[in-house]
Specification:
Blueprint lengths: L1 H19 L3 H17 L4 H28 L16 E9 L4 E6 L2 E7 L8 E8 L2 E6 L1
Parallel strand pairs: 3-5
Antiparallel strand pairs: 1-2, 1-4, 2-3, 4-5
Helix pairs in contact: 1-2, 2-3
Amino acid sequence: MTYYIYLILAVCCFIGELFSMEFSLACVGIGLLGSSLTAWLGGNIWWQVAVFIVVAGGAWIGVRPFALKHLYGRSKHIQTPAEAVIGQEALVETDIDPQNGSGRVKVGGESWKATAAKPLSAGTVCVVEKLDGVTLTVRPK
């Protein structure tokens, strides 16, 4: 009957893993599945604890690094659309005057407030250097 408790705890760990995404609770859940099998086969509490430690530790050392690398290794930093404009070409829509902070550029079909180190006239092609809030800093191409 004690193996039911281990199964319930294992399911709770797997559900919790859906929210944590660290593969830590999954390792504990795998260990609990091992303990459940040991209890179902008639092993005493010391065997159940030993199997839990060995299986959970083995999953932590052997499976967790592999899972983290292959499941989450590709998504280290995802750029937001705002960050993606850095380095792109822009077309000055209205004159950029650094003195009074006026001017707009068009990047990828979107109009942005812009500033530059020196004045730029409308129609000039430039490159986005930096994003500060909703203002782009540009330089002539």
